[in-house]
Write a structure and sequence with these properties.
Elements: E1 6-9, H1 28-39, E2 48-51, H2 58-61, H3 67-77, H4 83-87, H5 101-120, E3 126-129, H6 150-160, E4 165-169, H7 176-181, E5 188-195, E6 219-224, H8 230-248, E7 252-256, H9 275-285, E8 291-294, H10 301-315, E9 331-333, E10 336-338, H11 351-372
Parallel strand pairs: 1-2, 1-3, 3-8, 4-5, 4-7, 5-6, 7-8
Antiparallel strand pairs: 9-10
Helix pairs in contact: 1-10, 5-6, 8-9, 8-11, 9-10
Bound molecules: zinc ion (ZN).
Length: 378
């Protein structure tokens, strides 16, 4: 399906805010993604448009975050930081206090919520907020570079509007904040593909974490081994996601596209190329439902930006290539020289890598199927 109406959610207002320079999370990724898409002419025409975010309203934030936490976050951002805030994760090395933190968190979250609104109003079939995907934040906890959980809030807003929501997360880290927000609910199914929690933050997301009560079987965790490469990843994805999505029949898909599973990411240990993201998006598009896509992790800035540019081009139907190397041609911008196009070259997989990765991937597929497929009549 070529998407008819696609909204890229961005404003230069977001460029005012930066994590401290030594912090791995770089807000410039969204700015660069926007700049390149704009120069390629991919933000207008053919049903595409740019939409500016508005800050998330407090009444919406309180659907997930406690008043106490929001108060502490705002106070810290204004320079009044105390022990209580610290125990909520605010002001730690992972979640530092920086200038304009509260305003940034609200605007970045508001951008995802604008995407949800456009979808609910029928004004977009696809929306992308590259400044979103803060999937680790808890109701009363800043965690893993995340302060306000925009994706959990978007799922809540969509569910409150009566939609059956599928949340799918391909960030290399477990989407814990979202998974636990809906752990006992069946109106939001969460599926997270991530690096084995025994080897990576946040240390959760085992295959046997499947939800509870009415939500049993609606929380799906697919832990994959260090060294996971494209073919191995797609084997897991194709075995698990399409059958579950077909059985669940969502009305809308929220897709967290952290790009830290790419080879060369400094914080994680997968070896994917961005071709995986293009394939995943093609699968999601095949369900012909609105898709709200966000950014997330991704600590190699250049690779992350290229992945998001490619993802948007696939999402909005500008890249109709089903699997060959490219259709969009070379991209040359300032210091960025992507002469081979948007897609990464294939990476060589050694026998050793194959022999260590595949058995663990197959074991993960088997474990997930055994835990949740029966719930959905599969
Ligand atoms: Zn991540």
């Amino acid at each position: 399906m070529a998407t008819k109406k696609a909204a890229f959610i961005y404003s230069s207002e977001l460029e005012k805010y930066h994590y401290p320079p030594e912090h791995p999370f770089n807000t410039i990724r969204a700015q660069k993604t926007r700049q390149i898409l704009n120069s390629m002419g991919l933000l207008s025409g053919d049903g595409r448009k740019e939409v500016a975010p508005v800050p998330a309203e407090r009444v919406v934030l309180k659907k997930f975050h406690s008043a106490r936490y929001l108060h502490a976050l705002k106070n810290a951002s204004e320079g009044h930081w105390d022990n209580e805030a610290f125990y909520m994760g605010i002001g730690t090395s992972d979640c530092p206090v920086f200038e304009g933190l509260y305003e940034y968190a609200l605007l970045a979250c508001g951008a995802t919520l604008v995407g949800a609104k456009l979808i609910l109003a029928g004004e977009a079939d696809a929306a992308f907020n590259p400044s979103g995907g803060y999937h680790h934040a808890g109701p009363e906890k800043a965690s893993g570079f995340c302060y306000i959980n925009d994706v959990a809030l978007a799922c809540m807003v969509l569910a409150e509007a009566g939609k059956k929501v599928l949340y799918i997360d391909v960030d290399v880290h477990h989407g814990d904040g979202v998974a636990y927000a809906f752990y006992d609910r069946c109106d939001v199914m969460t599926i997270s593909f991530h690096q084995d929690p025994r080897t990576l933050f946040p240390g959760t997301g085992f295959a046997d974490e499947i939800g509870t009560g009415a939500g049993k079987g609606y929380c799906v965790n697919v832990p994959l081994p260090i060294g996971t490469y494209d073919r191995a990843y797609m084997e897991a994805f194709e075995a698990i996601a399409p059958p579950l999505i077909s059985a669940y029949k969502p009305d809308v898909i929220v897709f967290e596209l952290g790009a830290d599973a790419l080879a060369g990411d400094p914080l994680a240990h997968f070896r994917l190329t961005n071709n995986v993201y293009a394939e995943v998006i093609r699968h999601l598009l095949s369900f012909d439902k609105p898709i709200l896509m966000t950014g997330g992790g991704g600590y190699n800035v250049e690779n992350t930006v290229r992945a998001w540019v490619l993802a948007w081009s696939v999402l909005c139907g500008a890249d109709s290539n089903a699997g060959k190397n490219r259709t969009l041609g070379g991209v040359m911008l300032g210091s960025t020289d992507w002469r081979r196009g948007l897609r990464d070259s294939a990476l060589v997989v050694s026998n050793h890598q194959h022999n260590t990765v595949m058995p663990a991937v197959e074991a993960a597929i088997k474990a997930v199927k055994a835990k949740v497929f029966a719930v959905h009549g599969l």
